[in-house]
What we know:
seven-stranded mixed β-sheet, elongated, 32% helix, D-Maltodextrin-Binding Protein, domain 2, alpha+beta, 11 strands, single chain
Amino acid sequence: MVAAGTGETLELTGMPWKRCLEGVEKGDIAGAFAASYTDERAKYAVYPMAEGKLDRTRRLHTDGYTLLRLKGSSVGWDGNTFSNLTGPIGTQAAYSIASDLVRWGVSVDSNSDTPETLLRRFGAGQLQAIALLTGEAQFAMRKPYLADRVEIVSPPLTEKPYFLIFGRGYYDKNRKTVDDLWSMIEKIRESAEYKAMQPGEQSSR
């Protein structure tokens, strides 16, 4: 819908998130979908801005991270502090929640390249708890090898806006195209047609 609205052609290629961000940084790919803001990413990627600030009105959607623990575990999170945590929290490589956890004084294991690898390690008891995008966490709860063994800890760890980002080199050469895409994202996201298709803002790192 976004590409059609601007007359542009977008080529989408799936890849592990860490490799995706590395591709944007190196200039091997134009951009990435969908990224939350971090100071580190802003060194090599461009986000929609307004008056020098992040322009949340041109976000793709809002999503959050959720903590999962094995049933019977006493690991807790009250929205400010963790309790009964004796080991690192697992995250997928290059996911932004890792820097949040480190800032909160938590040890992090980011040695899983895909959500499935992270979930398998978690299910095997290698990790006491893991942090996943909320949509991924809900999907994980339906996996046969996890369904009766894990539970979501409330409240969510974070909630953030997510954006279509572009490498600085690509943006410098295609400013109008990128700005038009960002503006079309806002227009479509707020349209009655889109809202009828999406019960709420959808999950996306």
